[in-house]
Amino acid sequence: MQKNKLSIYIESSIIYTNLCVMKYPESKEKFIETWGTLGSQWGVNKSIAQIQALLLISPDPLSTDDIMKELTISRGNVNMSIRTLLDWGIIYKKAIAGDRKEYFVAEKNVWKWSLKIGAVRKQRELNPVLDLLREIAAEKETGKTKEEKEFARQIKDLNAFTQQIGKLTDKLFLSPQGELLLKLLKMFA
User: Fold this and answer.
1) For the segment 105-116, what is each residue's pLDDT rounded down to a tens digit?
2) Quick check: helix, strand or coil at residue 109?
3) pLDDT at 14
4) Measured between alpha carbons, how far is 82 from 102 in angstroms, rounded to an integer?
5) Residues 139-183: pLDDT tens digits?
6) Where are the domains of the chain?
7) pLDDT per position as a tens digit, 1-56
């Protein structure tokens, strides 16, 4: 029996589709695990990053129980991680009619959630340094000894630099849809 081009195409499409379907669970697991590792490297709790990754790729809202089952982590860990993600504004509660459980969905717009994370990190990590350097630089006395003068000079330079970085990050994070960041990326691409 001779096969025509259409039947060969259909068979190859079915095989390709089956391969893609078979790969999904492994790909999903690898993505979630890698996202968690990346989060750890950036100073974010691994579970927080994994929950965000799971919600990011989930087409439907997930409950705490769903997340616990999928990631095999404790209820307490899920609840604390969800609270953090809610505080950052990168996941939301979703009510499902007729169900008393709380469900959660991720912000799917990559610009929105990445800018929100950047703003949170700036507030948590950069702003305290900016405040400290501003406070030290504001002191009138620059010192008498060689060490004190060098210290004052370095603080002044660090303060000027970090203040500029702070202004730049504010502009990047406050621009709608990350327009300024996108323009900068296009300039260097």
Assistant:
1) 999 988 888 888
2) coil
3) 58
4) 11
5) 766 678 888 888 888 888 888 898 888 888 887 777 776 677 777
6) 5-106, 110-188
7) 555 555 555 655 555 555 455 588 888 999 999 999 999 998 889 999 999 999 99
Crossing angle for the helix pair 110-121 and 146-174, to the nearest 10 degrees: 160
Any idea which of 89-98, 123-132, 153-162, 178-187 has the lowest mean pLDDT? 178-187
Could you identify the residue written with the tokens 């000894």?
145
Name the strands in the sheet holding 62-63, side by side, starting at the edge strand that comes first in the sequence: 62-63, 103-106, 91-94
DSSP letter at 122? I
Residues 6+ positions from 68 with CB-CB distance below 8 Å:
74, 75, 78
Residue 93: phi and psi, rounded to 5, are -80, 145
Please check whether residue 158 is in contact with residue 130, taking contact to mean a CB–CB distance below 8 angstroms.
no
Fold for domain 5-106?
Answer: Arc Repressor Mutant, subunit A (1.10.10)
Q: Which of 95, 101, 88 is nearest to 51 (CA)?
A: 88
Q: CA–CA separation, 96 vs 40, rounded Å?
A: 32
The torsion angles phi and psi of 91, rounded to 5 degrees, stand at -135, 160
Phi-psi region of 89 (alpha: psi -120 to 50; beta: other; left: phi over 0): left
For the chain, what percentages of helix, strand and coil (3-state, to nearest 5) are there? 75, 5, 20
